[in-house]
Amino acid sequence: MEDKQKKIFTKNQSYTKAKDYCAYQERCQQEMRDKLYYWGLHKEDVEALIAELISEGYINEERFAKAFAGGKFRIKKWGKIKIKTELKKHNISEYCVRKGLEEIEEKEYIKCLKSIIEKKAKEYKVQNKFAKMKKIATYAVSRGYESEKVWDIIKESFEK
Description:
Blueprint: H1 11-24, H2 29-38, H3 43-55, H4 61-76, H5 80-89, H6 94-101, H7 106-123, H8 129-142, H9 147-159
Helix pairs in contact: 2-3, 4-5, 4-6, 5-6, 7-8, 7-9, 8-9
């Protein structure tokens, strides 16, 4: 199978494609910047287009952070630590990361964490109670949940 030839676009073509790309789904500046470079634009054109997309409301980092955080929590059941780490990888500002994490209601967050812990507790058939608790905690922490909250809920559910 042959590799597709990378298509190079003009500034005007890229602008039209970028608007469509941003209208389809929330994008952050870094995603758009990477895409524009991929389309063959130079630094000056890329930064000018990014500025234009921001001024026209196609790119909004706070809106992106809120959509990203809410989606990853609801759909993939990620914890706040993992969401924060992924937002940082997208070069999202600390302010926007905080705003994004505010989208997650604490009550729902704890409910989701309890659900993950209960599900894993049923899956693990380890006889030793403490080994089972450690395995469950390791799993929940790897999903991005805070270890203090994980252990509080594990202790609470194993005391029943």
